[in-house]
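Methods — Computational structure assignment.
A single polypeptide chain was analysed. Its primary sequence is given first, followed by the predicted tertiary structure written as C-alpha cells.
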Amino acid sequence: MSRLQVVSGKGGTGKTTVAAALALALATEGKRALLVEVEGRQGIAQLFETQALPYEERKIAVAPGGGEVYALAIDPELALLDYLQMFYKLGGAGRALKKLGAIDFATTIAPGLRDVLLTGKACEAVRRKDKRGRFAYDYVVMDAPPTGRITRFLNVNDEVAGLAKIGPIHNQAQAVMRVLKSPETAVHLVTLLEEMPVQETADGIAELRAARLPVGRTIVNMVRPAILDEADLELTREAPRTAIAKSLSAAGLGGARRGGVAERLVEPLLTQADEYAERYALEREQRAVLQGLELPMHELPLLAEGMDLAGLYELAKELRQQGIS
C-alpha cells in the first residue's frame, strides 16, 4: 500500500467516513496512521466523537491490535505562517501579518498557494522521520476535496506556475509533486451505486490519469443488502397471485379465505418487488460501469443503525477483510 492515501468522492457519498475507516484499517496491528482534513468541516472530529481538531496532530483512536490513529485539521493560514517561518524566519512578524489580515488575503487571491500549503503539510508528514530514522507515520490518509476539484487540488505544480517560476514557493510545489506523482501516493474515489456518482467517478479517474496522478481504488459505499436474486425476481413476475396469497397464508400472514389479509398483502408486496427489481437492475448496471474502469473495487455496506463510532470500526474491519492493509 502507498503511504499517502488520498480519498475523494462526490458530495454525499461518505468520503470522510471512508477516509476515517481506511485510517483505522491501515493502523491495525500496531501501525500508526495520520488522518488529515483539509476542508475545515471538522467531519473527522464528529465521526470519532471528539472535540474539534486543532492545528496539531492529536491521537483520536486506537485500532485493533494496538495501532494508533492521529488526526490533523490543516488551517491554510496557520500553514502559511509555518511556511513563512520555515523559509523566511519571520517569527513575530508573521503573527503581525496575520493580525493585519495579510495571510487571509494571500491565500484568497492565490488559491494555488493555498493548495500547496494544504498538500504540502500532508506530504511533510509522509516524509517525516524520527530520531532513529523511522517514518513518523506508516500511513497518511487525506480526506480530500470532492471529485470535481480533486485533480486541480493535487496538481499544485500547475496551480503555482503563474505565481512563482523560481524560489521557495516553486521549490515547495516541486517537492510536493514528487510525492503526489510517485508510487508513495494513491488516490481513491468513493461512490454510490447510482448514475451521477458513478459518472463523476469515471470522469474523475480520467482527469487524474490525464494529469498522471496515481489512481488507487474505487470504493462503493452504502451498499444495500441483496434481498432477492434474479431467480427470486423472476418468480415474483410469473407466480400466480392466488399462489402467493396461499404462501402468505401458510406462513401465518392472514387466513386463506377470499378477500382476507393474505390476499390483500399480495399487491403491495408485488409493488415492492417491482421497485426492488428496478433498483437491482440499476445497481447491477452501475457496478458493471465501475468494473469497466479496471481498478480494484471494494464495497462497504449501508449500516442500518446509522453511522457512529462502532460503525466506523465495522467498516474498517470490512476493508481489512477485503484486502486493504
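Note: The first helix runs from residue 15 to 27.
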